[in-house]
Amino acid sequence: MIPIKQGQGEHHVCSAEFAMAVRDTLDVISGKWKLPILGSLINGKKRFKELQKDIPRITARMLSKELRELEMNQLVKRTVYDTIPATIEYEKTPYGCSLDKVLFEMKEWGTQHRKRIIHKGKLKAE
Amino acid sequence: MIPIKQGQGEHHVCSAEFAMAVRDTLDVISGKWKLPILGSLINGKKRFKELQKDIPRITARMLSKELRELEMNQLVKRTVYDTIPATIEYEKTPYGCSLDKVLFEMKEWGTQHRKRIIHKGKLKAE
DNA sequence: TATATCGGTATACTAGAGTATAGCAAAAAC
DNA sequence: GTTTTTGCTATACTCTAGTATACCGATATA
After folding, report:
1. What is the predicted pLDDT for the residue at A75?
2. What pLDDT, on the 0 to 100 scale, is given for residue B11?
3. Each residue of A67-79: pLDDT tens digit?
């Protein structure tokens, strides 16, 4: 048995809290359709059917569900206009924009990571 | 029909590429155990059993699987020492540390988001 | 001989995320 | 009438992430 030892880690609460906070953010933006939806709303307000047309292959069920979650997290605002048939608009809130910094960092890292890893055939080239 | 219209969004390729890059990052760090593992490796090298002890309730199967993924993404390095029984050490790579900026932003946002949302009873208080 | 340790793998299961399809109410256009 | 539009919901399914449990070979320890 070789004496390999070094930094025999006490593991602090800190790390668990860190993980929780990161996971909270993760929960808000993960799911197959949240990013496409937020992406589509960058260009301004959109109605339900517009979002559907904008996001290929999304089902009404998923669009509805994800919009509801985004709304609960206050990233998206839903406005109902009393027309017939009902007009309902979705838009990114200012708070939703507070995520931009996070998303920007993730985009930067993801971009370079793809370049780095793609050569070894790990990521789907698409 | 009320003429509600404004920013009739042409939707660019840009947004899809953005979503892809963010998702690449998401794929690397999501999964139930990746953050706890990276957290445990902050304190230095660890052996398999040490990680198991450090991360309550993780199964050998998941630990092994997640470590393999982290290794494929070059965030973690696996070193085999020719002892008996074999000694195997895992450690965060310098490249793994390049994620720190992203994780920091996610932690910051997640922390304030929990404070913001918890009052409305959306997040599990834990 | 039996048991423990190390670093896992194999097999089978469960639960949750996502899909597919049909339908609804109310009015408008044909 | 019948069909179309809007913004969804209900039901049933599939597929994948994660869990539970047992086991492996080699060696050391009792």
Report:
1. 98
2. 44
3. 999 999 999 999 9
Domain ranges of chain B: 16-118
CB of A106 less than 8 A from some CB of B: yes
A84 — pLDDT class (breaks 50, 70, 90) = confident
pLDDT the model gives residue A60: 97
Contact between residue B123 and residue B117 where contact means Cβ atoms under 8 Å apart: yes
Burial bucket for residue B71 (CB in 10 Å: 0-12, 13-18, 19+): middle
* Minimum distance, in Å, between the CA of residue B31 and any CA atom of chain A: 10
User: What is the CATH code of the structural domain delimited by A14-92?
Assistant: 1.10.10.10
Full DSSP string of B107-122: HHHHHHHHHHHHTTT-
Among the partner-chain residues A25, A39, A109, the one whose CB lies closest to the CB of B99 is A109
User: Counting beta carbons within 10 angstroms of the beta carbon of residue A87, is it exposed (0 to 12), middle (13 to 18) or buried (19 or more)?
Assistant: middle
Q: Find the nucleotide nearest B59 (Cα to C1′).
A: D19
Contacts of B106 in chain A (CB under 8 A): 21-22, 25-26, 102, 106
CATH topology of domain B16-118: Arc Repressor Mutant, subunit A (1.10.10)
What residues does B103 pair with on adjacent strands?
none
Chain B nearest C-alpha distance from A3 (Å): 10
Q: Which tokens hold the place of B99?
A: 């994620």
With beta carbons under 8 A apart, name residues in chain A contacting B95.
116
Cα pseudo-dihedral B32, A110, A22, B65, rounded to 10: 20
